[in-house]
Design brief:
The structure holds two protein chains of two kinds.
Chain A lengths: L3 E4 L2 E5 L4 E7 L4 E9 L6 E7 L4 E4 L2 E6 L4 E6 L8 E9 L6 E2 L3 E6 L1
Parallel strand pairs in A: 2-11
Antiparallel strand pairs in A: 1-3, 3-8, 4-5, 4-9, 6-7, 7-8, 9-10, 9-11
Chain B lengths: L4 E3 L2 E4 L5 E6 L6 E8 L3 E9 L2 E4 L8 E7 L2 E6 L8 E8 L9 E2 L3 E5 L1
The chains are: A mainly beta, B mainly beta.
Chain lengths: ~110, ~120
């Protein structure tokens, strides 16, 4: 089955700096890669996703890149703000089913 | 739409007791997922249903865990008997359609504590 590795497990940045979170996946058939943000005590919520026919996608301060050959994808947050502090999860899904395999999560702390 | 609804939001029970967690997916969604979240193991998929049929239950820890989806608007996750190591947050999620890259919408979760 699919295996998703996520790094780093914790990330501390100064407000205004950029943050990058990286994930690798094992199943070359995976074709959909969402990113979820989970604030303390809340549910995970989708913030951005990318499909395998696209190399990069942007939405305001966040962007995701995908390298299918290397089987890795990354989340980039620019001009970080304290409200970006949360746990971020990457995930991967293939056409064989509707399941998402999640990475272990990254706790992002943005210091004001 | 009210989103995915889960009950109870918090459950404290003693070891050996039966626990039933409930989920109402978003109306019109075909797929339903049960996840468990702990600090040690992260977010784990336990089981998922498509059109009320269990598709993959390979994540169910052991026979003490069972899940049902008697109709499109209701699902239960039961633990019998419960053990302290079952303490976790259990999330239910639903998505519109299998086989398409649609977002999974998570419920608020049930925080289970087994003493």
């Amino acid at each position: 089955g699919e295996n998703v590795e996520q790094h780093p497990s914790t990330l501390s940045v100064q407000e205004g700096d950029s943050a990058v979170i990286k994930c690798t996946y094992s199943d070359s058939a995976s074709n959909y890669f969402p990113w979820y943000k989970q604030e303390l005590g809340k549910r995970p919520q989708l913030i951005i996703d990318i499909r395998s026919n696209v190399g990069e996608k942007k939405d305001q301060r966040i962007a995701v890149t995908l390298n299918k050959t290397a089987k890795h994808f990354s989340l980039h947050i620019t001009e970080t703000q304290p409200e970006d502090s949360a746990v971020y999860f990457c995930a991967a899904r293939n056409n064989a089913g509707n399941m998402l395999t999640f990475g272990g999560g990254t706790r992002l702390m943005v210091k004001p | 739409d009210a989103g995915v609804i889960q009950s109870p939001r918090h459950e404290v029970t003693e070891m050996g007791q039966e626990v039933t967690l409930r989920c109402k997916p978003i109306s019109g969604h075909n797929s339903l997922f049960w996840y468990r979240q702990t600090m040690m193991r992260g977010l784990e998929l336990l089981i998922y249903f498509n059109n009320n049929v269990p598709i993959d239950d390979s994540g169910m820890p052991e026979d003490r865990f069972s899940a049902k989806m008697p109709n499109a608007s209701f699902s239960t996750l039961k633990i019998q008997p419960s053990e302290p190591r079952d303490s976790a947050v259990y999330f239910c999620a639903s998505s519109p359609q299998a086989g398409v890259e649609y977002e999974q919408y998570f419920g608020p979760g049930t925080r289970l504590t087994v003493t």
